[in-house]
Amino acid sequence: MCSCNLYFNGELVMEDVMIVEKKGDKVIAIDLFGDKKEFVGEIKKIDLNENKIFIEG
Which InterPro entries does the record match to this protein? Predict the structure, then answer.
């Protein structure tokens, strides 16, 4: 299983992220427990070696 930490504008905002989806100007992230957060911005980097996702908005 691969889960990632999600950073928004350099700040850790979610852990154990399993799903990331881009819809229009929003990025939707869902964690291991089904909790969902929406961010207005762009995915800048996904680093699977470090298990990190970076969004800037």
Answer: CooT
Bridge partners, 38 (sequence order):
28
The pLDDT-based confidence of 50 (bands split at 50, 70, 90) is: very high
- Identify the three-state secondary structure at position 41: coil
The Cα–Cα gap between 38 and 4 comes to: 16
Cα separations (Å) of 4 from 24, 30, 45?
22, 11, 12
Q: CA of 3: how far to CAs of 21, 32, 36, in Å? A: 14, 8, 14
The whole-number average pLDDT for the span 14-20 is 97
Residues 6+ apart with CB under 8 A from 56: 8, 9, 41, 42, 44
